Amino acid sequence: MTVTLEGAPDSDTVELDELTAQLRGRLLELDVDRVESVRIDEAPAGSKPGDAVTLGVLGVTLSPIVLREVFRLLETWMTHRPIRKVRVVFGDDSIELEQATTEDQRRLVEAFIVTHGPVSRAEPEGEADASSA
Length: 133
Prior knowledge:
Elements (H helix, E strand, L loop, with lengths): L1 E6 L5 H16 L5 E6 L13 E9 L5 H13 L3 E8 L2 E6 L3 H15 L10 H5 L2
Antiparallel strand pairs: 1-3, 1-4, 2-3, 4-5
Helix pairs in contact: 2-3
């Protein structure tokens, strides 16, 4: 999963870098496996190969069961920071969290989690009936 931050219009690269580091720290407090800065394929001219990272982008390794916690953190975290948008890419799908109403944002996140979260462990139809016979 990748998380991309887009700063407010008056944000600069230093502020975005600091916000990314803060978010990384908060994500690591959750039950995620790993949170790393995303490296770019081609380093800018004059930089050392392997040292270039994409500003404002984190790669997060996690179990789908933690997805809801991550989104709750992102929703709360962005409302108290100069962030315009947070984009989350999970597999082939993505979702963008912006300064929408809380209710609209929750509905979008819930739909995303239902699609990508852990599978329900309910018994398949017919098994419960067969075991009670």
